[in-house]
Amino acid sequence: MQRSDKGKGRENWGSRLGFIMAASGFAIGLGNIWRFPYIAGNNGGGAFLLIYLAIVLIFGIPLFYAEAGLGRKAQAGAISGMRKLAGKGSPWVSIGWLGTLAALLIMSYYLMIMGWLFAYFFNIGIGTFQGITSEQAAVVYEDLISNPIAVIGYSIIPTLILGTIVSKGIKNGIEKFVKIVMPLLFIMLIFLAIFSLSLPGSFEGVVWYLQPDFSKINANTLLAALGQAFFSIGIGLASAFTYGSYLKPKGSNLVKDGAWVVSLDTFIAFLSGLVIFPALFAFQMEPNSGPGLLFLTIPTLLEQMPFGYGFGLIFFCLVIIGSITTGVGLIETLATNVSELFHSSRKTSVWMTIGVTFTLAIPIILSQGPWSHVHLFGMDIFDLVDYVSGNILLTLGGLLISLYVVFQWTFNRFMQDINTGAETIKLSSAWKPVISYLIPLSIIIILITGLI
């Protein structure tokens, strides 16, 4: 992803598989393995899942096409790209600014979550969870997150890893990394889901996860599902825009590749639920345990498995890898904008971005310990940042993208641009009422009712 400085042209993905794996890796990461189960757990399980799948199908695919298509068309990062497409003073440039702000806020708490993952990897390695009960696992989790010195120390590790990978660019950094690690992550999650489903009492968790209880659905559920879908796929984060900008303008099949990205992302989200919820009910734990759900469930699950702790090391290693693929996309998004706005080199932009996000992570880490008493709008700093970035900024970003397609791009030109490079499967005019009316109106209604 080298910039045009020093006489070099913009770098492109080395292969279709590279783009699919990188975009899927960004989407899959912690958004599905960590965030999806706890958001589903807080919103009633089966009812949330049904709404989430509908939103992904109706909203997610066309909006991913739109955002990645804007990036491919602009051949630039989100802010510079929207200036290029709509004009420097245009209000549509706010698409780039909103996405960049959302990426910055999400990355600031991602570093904390990644620090937790590294801490768990270390604790499994030294045997902390051997012979542990679910109650004792909860104590270990609370002790960790309330210790800011430990979390900051562990968070330095992923910070340095992300900086190193993104500094190397697309082909030698991101693409090479994801081609190796993503297949391993798929296999490991499938194996864990099979084992979780084999536990006594797990079927109750499957029923809770798959059987919709429509009494659980309210405006907040709709907003949470919309925010999670956008969060997971990367809509409104400027990351689909950034990754799309490294596609060749006329030599890439965005229709088919985008469908692969969204399908893989949704499959992993669904699979993560099949790992977590059957195990929760088997161990008689609450599904609405919040952000700590993964960290409370997996250690107890590993205790029941033969060779569980060797397996646990591998699992947390792979979840760390998944978190890194997401972090890489967020850092790349931010660094691209920094580089283009300030005309700085890739390495300078990356490490500037790393420094800012790490600094912002510190108050979020403190909010789980010494600053846990600090509440704004009834939420601690972490929950507030997660809510504002995941539910409000991403939803607004998705809304603006849909409105841009309607009023600025127009459907016919949008369809023509997205179908550039497509072969057997193409975006058809049947999507026009969905994209022109259903998506923007639905987002407006969900956003307003959810906030009220």
UniProtKB/TrEMBL annotation:
CDD domains: SLC6sbd_Tyt1-Like (cd10336). The chain crosses the membrane at residues 12-34, 46-65, 92-124, 144-165, 177-199, 219-246, 258-283, 307-330, 350-367, 387-407, 434-451. Keywords: Membrane, Symport, Transmembrane, Transmembrane helix, Transport. It is a multi-pass membrane protein. GO terms for cellular component: membrane. One of its GO terms (molecular function) is symporter activity. It is found in: Membrane. Pfam families: SNF. It comes from the Bacteria. Belongs to the sodium:neurotransmitter symporter (SNF) (TC 2.A.22) family. NCBIfam families: Na_transp (NF037979). This is Transporter. It comes from Lentibacillus cibarius.
